[in-house]
Amino acid sequence: DTEVTQTPKHLVMGMTNKKSLKCEQHMGHRAMYWYKQKAKKPPELMFVYSYEKLSINESVPSRFSPECPNSSLLNLHLHALQPEDSALYLCASSLAPTDTQYFGPGTRLTVL
Amino acid sequence: AQSVTQPDIHITVSEGASLELRCNYSYGATPYLFWYVQSPGQGLQLLLKYFSGDTLVQGIKGFEAEFKRSQSSFNLRKPSVHWSDAAEYFCAVGAWNYGQNFVFGPGTRLSVLP
């Protein structure tokens, strides 16, 4: 089973709202990732958690705040987003930080 | 920095025809190479990967890819395309030897004519 689940599938939020995206995997993977993908572009890496510790932050604005409560869960907390943050947010996981990544279905975020 | 190029932005083929999607990479060490497929509004699904060994790699859905070190290429092929293969295809390299993560190519959009 190579399933990564993400909730919600769709999210619409105002610029003053606070919301969270959730990602879960039960494959025993120890690395988890957040990507942002705009239309017709490849995914852009935002954050990497390795063994539940933040190992890579690709200079992402502080209005995006990741959290890894345990080895199976990854959250992305959103606050005071801008319309240009509207995108597909993808979560991925891998057995180790240098291994094949398996992607979830994504959350389509719209910021009004 | 390591990079991946996919020279074809958009390819259209007829159903039943053969397919080849091109991928070239720039990477100093032995590359870890991947092909992913993405249907509209969906996540990325792994088609196949190359880490070492046999340079012809078989994947899911009847796809295969061949690693050619001399040409720095990892082209994806399918002998007979189905309408359901219409999607975006991304080639990626695992650039871990250089302190990077996955480096994705820009993608190739495949359209299939009935």
List segments of chain B where confidence is low: pLDDT < 50 over at least 5 consecutive residues.
none
Give Rg of chain B in angstroms: 14 Å
Q: Structural class of chain B, please?
A: mainly beta
Structural class of chain A: mainly beta
Distance between the terminal alpha carbons of chain A, to the nearest Å?
37 Å
Amount of helix of chain A: under 10%
- Largest β-sheet summary of chain B: 6 strands, mixed
What does this structure look like?
The complex is a heterodimer of chains A (112) and B (114). By secondary structure, chain A is an all-beta fold. Chain A contains no helices and eleven strands. The relative contact order of chain A is 0.33. Chain B is mostly beta strands. In chain B, strands 2, 5, 6, 10, 11 and 12 form a six-stranded mixed beta sheet that branches. In chain B, strand 7 and strand 8 (64-68) form a beta hairpin. The A-B interface holds A 2, 4, 6, 33, 40-43, 45, 48, 56, 88, 90, 92, 97-106, 108 and B 32, 34, 36, 41-46, 49, 90, 94, 96, 101-102, 104-107, 109.
Brief description of this entry?
The complex is a heterodimer of chains A (112) and B (114). Chain A is mainly β. Chain A contains no helices and eleven strands.
Brief descriptors of the model:
heterodimer, A: 112 residues, mainly beta, 7-stranded mixed beta sheet, 4-stranded antiparallel beta sheet, 11 strands, 0% helix, 57% strand, globular, B: 114 residues, 6-stranded mixed beta sheet, 12 strands
Map the helices and strands:
The complex is a heterodimer of chains A (112) and B (114).
Chain A: E1 4-7, E2 10-13, E3 18-25, E4 31-37, E5 44-50, E6 53-57, E7 64-70, E8 73-79, E9 87-94, E10 102-103, E11 107-111
Parallel strand pairs in A: 2-11
Antiparallel strand pairs in A: 1-3, 3-8, 4-5, 4-9, 5-6, 7-8, 9-10, 9-11
Chain B: E1 3-5, E2 10-14, E3 19-21, E4 24-26, E5 33-38, E6 44-50, E7 56-58, E8 64-68, E9 73-78, E10 87-94, E11 102-104, E12 108-113
Parallel strand pairs in B: 2-12
Antiparallel strand pairs in B: 1-4, 3-9, 5-6, 5-10, 7-8, 8-9, 10-11, 10-12
